[in-house]
Amino acid sequence: MTDIEESVYQAFESALGTGSVAGQNFFDLGGDSLLALEVATQVEEGLGCAFPLEELFETGDIDAVVAAVTKQLS
Amino acid sequence: MAAGTGEESPTDPGGTASGNRLPRLGIVVAGRGSLTPIEAYSALRDSYAPVFLVVDAAGQDDPASAALESTMRALARRAEVHRVPSATGLVDAPIRELSGITTFCADGVEPACRLASEAGLPPLAADGGQGLYDKVAQRAALGPELSPRHQPLPTPCCTAGAGRHSPCNRQEWEQAAESVGLPAVLKPARGQASRGVRRIADGADLSAARHEILAADLDPPSDEPAWLLEEFLAGHHRWPRAAYVSVESVVSGSDIRHVALTHKLPMVEPFRELGQYLLPRDLEPAGEQGALLDCASRALTRLRVRNAVTHTELMLTPDGPKVIEVNARLGGLVRELVRAGRGADLARAAAAVAVGNRPENPDEPAADRELVFQYGPLAPVHPAVFVAAHGVADVLSLPGVQRYLAHVSAGELLGGGSETVTMAVVSGACRDEEELAAVVTGLEKVLSYEYRLHPDGQARRCDARGVPIG
Question: 3-state DSSP call for residue B42?
Fold first, then answer.
């Protein structure tokens, strides 16, 4: 796992208050729009990139969002 | 969100890293909406600088208001957030330099109309828009051809004998029932999501409704009609298709474009919505579709709608379609449905027309050859605390079901009542209505919800329609 991936997963884990979110759906873990904004803020402020908030709302797919952020920064 | 000045300063108000200024779009927030403020921000932030105008709900100390407060505090770090007094003083709101105003909340339509008018922004309707938020004015504008028989009513001031605020108006209510005919539907002149709507079958129901309204003391005494009694529009549903539909339209100036005809699952008593779907275009009966879209066009024209996304509910009666109501905002869950079935993003369309632009044309949707659906399991009508959902994995294994998205968390208090409150949304796609009927039957067999009744804590299990089991 790269530093970027780790950082984004950590933002999800911190907002959701749970460990190992890889492979999971954000909404199945209790995520809502407020928590999504919290993750987005952490990632955007920490990594200086645009967080794909719309993609998260549309699919809830945490891995896909991590991949999108990684792609943007690579 | 700060109280005093009512303003927060985001780190980058309306700016972008490149320094380009985005159009400042006022988004009126007033209670529950078809998009949460964060979803609206997310949908629009790449093309607009959202300026949230939060209508004060003075004295409301409920969980929903507290949640909205947290949301707006979080958003204030990223976008402008301002409080707007609900009744007066809109002129003091920070509406200068806005490019347009929109809302995704039913209760936001009136302030949006007023703010647009005061600021000289593209209006939601050419005449100020009273017909968009006041059902009595809407019926008057639509006229008898498009409306059911109806009669505006004042707030009941007594059940019999002397009145509290004014002379007794019981007789006025009884005369209205006689003129409209029973069964009828009693609805607040302003309101949303079937809040406060009652079916009036006979004189006893009418009397009971008057007592309930008086006991709840909902309305301050006023000369304005607060209630509307309407002919009950009976339609025959053909399972799984209800006898009513909604038409989702984008109005840009005098141009009306109907984006989708949304079919509904039959309602749960009294008027609770259970689900909706879009048919593949080739399965839509052309003649019936034409009559419905024509009815929606005439309604929007008579209401002089100008720059808005609209959600027009129509009942199919033996005499042709009649307007249930026209909403000058996106319908609940309609954005997701229309994106899946037609490829258009109605949230972005609402923003575009609010600033006076024509919305982009949608790409050709991949799912146009499929029926796309949403099913919303209902909360119970009695106040209850949600404990757990059962059968979700079984629902997800049904053919056609793609997603189960919970709307309520364990421990959340649900207020009860006749309003449509969904526990989740189950969405997916299938070939036709026969397959949809099988999906609905299948999911209703396996899905149930566990609650504790409020306030006594008694355990209660309900089915997906919110009906107690056992």
Answer: helix
- Residue of B1, B18, B22, B42 to mutate, testing the A interface (most A Cβ within 10 Å of its Cβ): B42
Topology annotation, domain B370-470: Aldehyde Oxidoreductase; domain 3 (3.90.1170)
Q: How far is B39 from chain A (nearest CA, A)?
A: 7
How large is the ipTM?
0.88
Nearest to B405 among A27, A37, A38 (CB): A27
Count of beta carbons in the 10 Å neighbourhood of residue B463: 16
Domains of chain A, earliest start first: 3-73 (1.10.1200.10)
Domain B24-121, CATH number (from 3.40.50, 3.30.1490, 1.10.260, 3.30.1450): 3.40.50
Best of A45, A54, A58, A61 to disrupt the B interface (most B CBs within 10 Å) is A54
pLDDT at B65: 80
- Name which of A37-51, B152-166, B171-185, B207-221 the model is least confident about: B152-166
Express the helix, strand and coil content of chain A in percent, nearest 5 each: 65, 5, 30
Q: What angle do CA A24, A26, A29 make, to 5 degrees?
A: 80
- Write the pLDDT tens digit of every residue in B176-204: 999 999 999 998 887 664 567 888 999 99
pLDDT of residue A70: 95
Closest-CA residue of B relative to A36 is B38
CATH level 3 topology of B149-231? Dna Ligase; domain 1 (3.30.1490)
